[in-house]
Structures are given as C-alpha cells and as structure tokens.
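User: Just a sanity check before I run the rest of the batch. Below are the structure tokens for the first item. I only need the designed sequence back.
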C-alpha cells in the first residue's frame, strides 16, 4: 500500500543495455510538494531514469509507482491516462516552430480537455502570466529568446495544473541570470499550484537552489540521497568531487568513449 502523500515510489529498478547496467537496484520516493533533483555526470543513468519515470522505457526489474499506480507493464492507453496527470519540460523546450507561443501552450489544453476556445485562450493567458510572458502569445518561438522559450515550455507543462512536473535539464544553455529566473519560477509555481517536481540537472548552483531532496547516481547506483543540507554534510568522495566540480577524484576524466565505458562496466 502506497502512502497517500507519496507521489512517486521507485523500488529495485534495474535496466541493462548489453552487459552494462545503466540502472542498478535504484530505489527512492518523492512526497507531495517535494522537488527532487536527480544529478550525476554524463552516462550515470539519470536521463534513463527519467525516461522510466515517464513510461517511455520499461525496466528489466523493479517497480515504479506514479500517483499510487504501478506504471511498469502498463499498455499505452493506461500510460496515457497517467501521463495526463503530469507535465513535462524538455531540455530543448520542444516548442513547435510553426505555432505561436499561445498555440504551443494551448496544445495540452486542446488535446486533453473539453473546453471551448474562449476558455482555452483564457487558460493560456493565465499560464503565460504565471511565467511572466503576458502579451507574448502571438509571437513565434523564433521571435523570442532562449530563456523565454524555456518559460513558454514551462507554461505548456503546467497548462492543465498537473500534480506532478518532470523537468529535463531545464536551465541548460541559459546564462546565470536566466537560470535564476527559471529556478525561481519553478519554486514559485510548485508552491502556488501545489505541484511535486522531479528535476534532472548537472547544474549544482541550480540544484541546491531549488531542491528539497537530492539524489546522485553514479555507475547506475544511488550513491547519495537526502536533503541539500544532508548532501553537503556527507563524507562521500564521489559526491564531493561532483558537487564541487573537481578534476581530481574517484570519478575519472572522460578521455575516450571506450575507456569511459570500460570504467562504467567495471
């Protein structure tokens, strides 16, 4: 029985590609209202974990409970029902270039709800207002900046007020000021809308700014999990090297793809 305040529970998750276990007995939970940051270096398994959480990839073993339902083994119709309850902010923003800002934000509204055009337009304006883009609905993505595109993508992700939000590298490619803007928006929206969020990132400044819980993956395993204060207090050389961005330590430099894969396989 999954507790009511537990929005996500992952138990014993395993995924292998050939001889390499990309996810190796991964377990954690996310409670309502928390922002979980999943972090780790390239090839650690964080993107693969996110794809499992949204049901794009099925595990070799283990269970994933989203809003009390085990999505492992679900068919596409069942997965679609669960996906309607969460928003997704992609790394690139994934806006449709041929559509206006307003049309991009309206997509989930028109696809997953039955409202007339007047209500849909009102909902779009409300979401754009929440991300500070009032009056931009008639512009095309090519006419706005990279930071504004991320905010439009965030408005689209929350268009239907989902209880759960997934973000894949939401601040990638942004300057420090715009990164702070997106982080502040994420925190503010989670509080205002009562959302739970899972954020995949390698930006440590951003991670410590928004996280209520943090999880670090290394060689497919969870090597650290806790609050930001607990993470900072942990005496783990792998964690310390990554958080501090140090060249010297147990995590080797990625000199070549072959050497790196050999290291991951062990």
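Assistant: Here's the designed sequence for the first item:
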């Amino acid at each position: 029985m999954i507790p009511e305040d537990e929005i996500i529970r992952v138990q014993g998750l395993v995924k292998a590609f050939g001889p390499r276990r990309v996810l190796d007995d991964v377990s954690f939970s996310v409670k309502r209202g928390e922002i979980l940051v999943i972090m780790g270096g390239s090839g650690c398994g964080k993107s693969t974990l996110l794809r499992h959480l949204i049901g794009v990839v099925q595990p070799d073993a283990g269970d994933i409970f989203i809003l009390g339902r085990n999505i492992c083994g679900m068919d596409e119709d069942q997965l679609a029902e669960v996906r309607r309850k969460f928003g997704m902010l992609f790394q690139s923003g994934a806006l449709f270039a041929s559509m206006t800002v307003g049309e991009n934000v309206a997509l989930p509204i028109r696809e997953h709800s039955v409202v007339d055009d007047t209500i849909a337009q009102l909902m779009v304006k409300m979401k754009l207002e929440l991300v500070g883009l009032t009056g931009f609905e008639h512009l095309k993505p090519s006419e706005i900046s990279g930071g504004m595109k991320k905010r439009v993508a965030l408005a689209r992700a929350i268009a239907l007020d989902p209880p759960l939000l997934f973000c894949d590298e939401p601040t990638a490619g942004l300057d420090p000021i715009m990164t702070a803007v997106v982080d502040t928006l994420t925190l503010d929206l989670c509080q205002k809308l009562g959302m739970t969020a899972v954020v995949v990132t390698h930006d440590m400044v951003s991670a410590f700014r928004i996280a209520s819980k943090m999880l670090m993956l290394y060689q497919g395993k969870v090597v650290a999990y806790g609050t930001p204060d607990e993470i900072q207090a942990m005496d783990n050389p792998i964690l310390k090297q990554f958080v501090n961005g140090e060249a010297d330590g147990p995590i080797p430099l990625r000199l070549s793809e072959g050497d790196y894969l050999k290291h991951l396989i062990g």
